[in-house]
Amino acid sequence: MSALLSGDVDFISPVPPQDYGRIRGNPAFKLFTMASSRIITFPDESKEKPELANLKVRQAIIAAVDNAGIVEKIMDKTTTPSQQNSPKGFVGYAEGLQPRFDLDKAKALMKEAGYENGFSVTMISTNDRYTNDEKIAQAVAGMLSKINIKVELKTMPKSPVLGSIRRSGG
Fold this sequence. Notes:
Layout: H1 2-6, H2 20-24, H3 55-64, H4 67-73, H5 103-112, E1 119-126, H6 133-145, E2 149-156, H7 158-168
Parallel strand pairs: 1-2
């Protein structure tokens, strides 16, 4: 953004959502937006963390994460909340499938799964790969704490994270 404002570059992509207003308010710039196929998901770590092999725990995690809240508060309403891996217009998209944020249901599922008192997990997230990826990871960690999943969050640049995934065969 600094390079764009100073005239060092002619365009940038992506534009951080918090800077949309600055660009829209400056007649020297034009802001172009378009739908993306990028969806941030959690990998299946049930082999490393047995608690995650429990379907009710995974359903509780889905219910505990407020996708719409992330879109509104972190992404400044510049993205679309998703509840599936295929965006509208892509193969695999299921019409009518909506985000399922329901904290009471999430707590009930944790209790049914035998994890009412929760457990601890480590979450590794990039902090430079996606727009606001670190903020999203922090928000998710906070949301999971509401169902007694204690998240030890480690954020780092994409190179070490992706290298670790490749070495583990993920």
